Amino acid sequence: MSVPIDFQRTAYSYDFDPALIAQTPAVPRDSSHLLVFDRTTRAIHHEVFRELDKFLRPGDLLIVNTTRVMPVRLFPRERASGRPVELFLLRARSPRFWEALVKPGRRIRRDSSLEWDDGTVATVIERLPDGSRVVEFSREVTPDWLEGHGKTPLPPYIRREANDEDRERYQTIYATAPGAAAAPTAGLHFTESLMERLAAGGVHKAELVLHVGIGTFRPVRAEDIRQHAMESEYYEVSPDTLERIRTTRASGGRIIAVGTTTVRTLETLADTGQIDARDTVAGWTRIFIHPPYRFRVVDALITNFHLPESTLIMLVSAFAGREQTLALYAEAVRLRYRLYSYGDAMLIT
């Protein structure tokens, strides 16, 4: 039996010049390009991101993900041999126990010890089915300790080592909740002055947290995308944000999601019924949004341009339509928009 085209992985591919993959961020943040697409009129506008306020209205609610990228790329040495090792922290099971990727993986086996100059030791206590490890640290791994020992985990398509500038730029200006292994990149374009201008124009803001995991970079391998399994990611939403969503919808305003992580959190709330909660809600989501998903919370989306055949372009395709999304990407490529995490942005209304 043939697979319907919307479920075929290769139906989300597009051609582009690899030179369009942004290796550095725009300076200033809001000088990046912005492609605006209106789903009702089919109109397309080409703007600069700082002009975003032209397309938002009083009463709209802009919802951002305040997760903060942790410097989780660590470079200890193997105690037995003294050779350098890379340890990429994926998820905390507790302050001392972490799931992690290890390079070189073949050499680092169970009971291997890794050490740092400050005396910290991490011992491999388990190998997981996906090849990652569980490591036990001799101390609690705090944000302050990571800041002193780790590097920013840039995406693999940025072909350079992270530098001091990335500590600030691979981070949104409103990032306050440490826990992510990757940035919610649609938010990288916002500046304080743009936020102030939006507020002055009557656009409200609300916050939530989804800690972006490394799974955001893992490719879809199944030919039929319905067979793809998402990795779970932790989210948390405050009563204030939930109330703002209800108030906005009741008054006819739009819910503007900044990034696919915000979309996935909001739609998870609808799926679980937590959207009507009066207290803080939290949990783990593995929601995979692709055509023909019906959105129940999000009215407009701000997003970057994503990898071909990724779960991210599939989410955008669910929102704008697969063929339309590919047409927008073709237009962006033709006009030399910059792609991926440090690239340009799109607003779909």
Low-confidence stretches: none
How many β strands by DSSP?
Answer: 18
State the end-to-end distance. Answer: 36 Å
Biggest sheet statistics = 9 strands, mixed
Explain what the structure shows:
The structure is a single chain. The chain is built from seven helices and 18 strands. It is α/β, with parallel strands linked by helices and 349 residues long. It folds into two domains: 5-69 and 165-348, QueA-like, CATH 3.40.1780.10; 73-149, Beta Barrel (Thrombin, subunit H). The strands form three sheets. Strands 2-1-18-17-15-3-13-14-16 form a nine-stranded mixed β-sheet, with helices on one face. It has a seven-stranded antiparallel β-sheet with strand order 5-7-8-11-10-9-6, with no helix packed on it. Helix 6 packs across helix 7 (322-334). The longest helix is centred in the last third of the chain and has 13 residues, at 260-272. The chain is globular, with a radius of gyration of 21 Å. The model has no long low-confidence stretch (mean pLDDT 96).
Give a brief description:
This protein has helices at residues 143-149, 164-169, 192-200, 239-250, 260-272, 311-320, 322-334, and strands at 33-37, 44-48, 61-65, 67-69, 73-74, 77-78, 86-92, 97-103, 113-115, 121-127, 133-137, 177-180, 204-210, 233-237, 255-258, 281-285, 300-304, 345-348. The chain has 349 residues and is of the alpha/beta class. The protein folds into two domains: 5-69 and 165-348, QueA-like (3-Layer(aba) Sandwich); 73-149, QueA-like (Thrombin, subunit H).
